Amino acid sequence: MRVQLIVSSFGSGTSAQFVGHARTTLGVIASAFPRPAMHQVIKDLQAKLQKIRQLDAEILEDHFDRINGIIYSLWRGELKIWEYSKQIKLDFRLVTPKEKQVLLKTREIPPGKVKTYAEIAKEAGIPRGARFVGNTLRKNPLAPLIPCHRVVSSNGKLGGYGFGVKTKEELLKREGALKKTRTQ
Fold this sequence. Notes:
184 residues, Double Stranded RNA Binding Domain, Arc Repressor Mutant, subunit A, 2 domains, 7 helices, 6 strands
């Protein structure tokens, strides 16, 4: 499978952050959160792509890439960008059809709102599938384009997060959704 890894930098000097995504002819197949070094972004993307047996990856540095700009803006909590992120074509070949349903339902959650793992399971047609939803979101290859940080436990706690609960808490604070939850 031919994949392009596109990495962009935002900011300058010691505050610079690198953001990246991997795309195929079908759309974005993986994305990476901002990191202080380009090699960390590339490593994150390669880890998400390890399921692909015959990977032909090309690494491109593009400081004006639109998708990376959207990812960076989502990370910073710029809520108006969310509508644009929903227009990005996604490639779901790294997940099962059942996982794809979970990711699609999660993608619908707007900034400032949260849903529970159980609610997403029900909407995805997976009765009593809250644990399945949590496991799917833990390995979400498309965060933050698929905003898995907006899914919380039914008991009001934040639940887990692949980038750490503190990161999840910070993202929800930026979006104004934290008042509906409490930390683990």
